[in-house]
Amino acid sequence: MNHSLLIELHTEELPPKSLKALSESFANSILAALKEQAFASANSLCTPYATPRRLALLISEVAAQQPDRVIEKKGPAVASGVDAEGKPTKALEGFMRSAGVSFEQLQKTSDGKAEYFVARLEKKGEALDAHLAEIVTQALKKLPIPKLMRWGDSDVQFVRPVHSLILLHGDRVVAGEVLGLTSGNTTHGHRFMSNGEIRIDNAGEYDAKLKAGKVIASFEERRNAIAAQLDAKAAELTASMHPAEGLLDEVTSLVEWPAIYVGEFENEYLDVPQECLILTMQQNQKYFPLFDSTGKLLNKFLIVSNMVVADPKHIVEGNARVVRPRLSDARFFYNQDRKEGFASRAMKLGSVVYHNKLGTLADRAQRLGRIARRTAEMLGADANLADRAALFCKIDLLTDMVGEFPELQGIMGRYYALHEGAMPAVADAIEQHYRPRFAGDVLPQGPIACATALADKLDSLVGFFGIGQLPTGDKDPFGLRRAALGVLRILMETPLPLDLGKLVEVAKEALTHQGVHLEELDEPLLAFLFDRLRGLLRDAGYAQEVIEAVLAQRPTRIDLIPLKLDAVRSFLNLPEALALAAANKRIGNILKKAEGALPKPNPALLQDDAEKALYDKVQAIAPLVTTHVASENYADALKALASVRSEVDQFFDKVMVNVDDPALRGNRLGLLKALFDQLNAVADISKLGV
User: Fold this and answer.
1) What pLDDT was estimated at residue 690?
2) R_g of the chain, CA atoms, integer Å
3) Cis peptide before 495 (omega within 30 of 0)
4) Model-level pTM?
5) 150, 181, 194, 466 - which has most CB atoms within 10 Å?
């Protein structure tokens, strides 16, 4: 009979930051194993449950008995499975032993490439009871748990002590042992708001029985309930909350029956930059700060409690007592940091090693100043402001506040810079030079901030590539992938009319000026940057062939790439596009075989009407294409090129290029070279239609 299957591990408090991942992994592994062993079907649905004190799941339509099955085991290829006399090789003999079959019982099948031996074995269906405990055990071993623990005098290991196990198929307990526990059908509700054990008589009543025991077992349902209660309480206070998805997940992992209460702190703490207070409340206390209609922090916060009480006075007061020392620490750090000026802290940068081959933070600050200055000059911005912002952008790393909360680097630099009397553009650049910090993050605003942000990222990229510290596989200890994406996004999305190659040269000059020895880095660094750019453009919805057509030419004006991509995408809709793409590829292959420099085509050497027509057409469109490209009107440049299709077709139909006469051959190759240059003025269109 098919029934719903309930599995629950009742535990001590599970790690809140990993609860959601543990639940998803557990549910996916169990369902996959049941399907693989034919206990569950494609119609079986899995409902995961996860609270601080339990991992559970409910799977519908689970069979008590496997059907009889034919299991197919793939063996060696026929070519390697038998020798010249048709006898089994050692490899095939080993396969037959492992499968428990004779040579006569083997069959052959093909995967379209080669023929293989297979053993088809009839397997009698077995009971769920014979497999379920092992399925659960194996699923637990696959959980993403970095550290296991033991408890009591047992050798059993898990992320937290486990107190009970439910294996319930319909209304029947499936006998089995997992983590040293024998299966049953009892669990516990809320630690403080329920009484005694909860007996689950049927798998389908699990959710309702736990709600009666003051536990919302579903992670998603509990999360939604918390979000709704937070919104309602904020609205009641005429306040708002900032998005905090990570914190919402974390508090969902800390409570089983949520209740929302309002806490307060003294107004005097609002003199501290609100980012410090927000981080203190969210990171240390798991509170949700509240804001007024202008986005200014209020002296109120929301508490997600695990207890519903008639009078929450003690809960609220207790939380206020706990948060007050945290806010006092933040105020102390802020006041202490402002007592020491930038000039004094700047001197201390020389005592902090950035990298043993790239010098100290003071060395780096000097480099950032040089790079930012040159970048600002290219943008026509105030080079002195960019220089100053870059020189001071790392000073807040030495402050107490950033030492306590590294997430505030840059943010605190802005506050301290304004306290020192810095111009707003400099202070803003100090804060924004880390942007974008992550995918989708906002970009630095204004030329001074952009110059400083580019300097920070280019110094990292050129410096670490120059000393051979390249990212490998999934290892990127210096955040170079993030830096590369930041450079590309700033140049492309702002957009900024800067040449990427020149920016790399500026960063190289800053490093070599300090005596840093750089290995050859241009090619590997540009390849790395363009690989990141491909990913950005794919995410933006551009087709791979369009991306490759544009990037094949390694354009270093990154800000112009979207214009070229859009032009190539429009060109592809023209009826002439694919024919010209094929012709361009053919011309490229012909020119690769040409020896020496090719002359400009001489009209006096033209003989065939087809080559004369092509020459005339190339001469006619060349100024059009040049003008359109110079004015960044790439779509019209490609439209002008589309008009050459008939002349190109006639040329290849009627003209032999590689004739014996060297002058005639050179002239025709020169004509093709002139056409090739025009066809590739915007992108390598030979990449289209491939």
Assistant:
1) 58
2) 35
3) yes
4) 0.82
5) 466
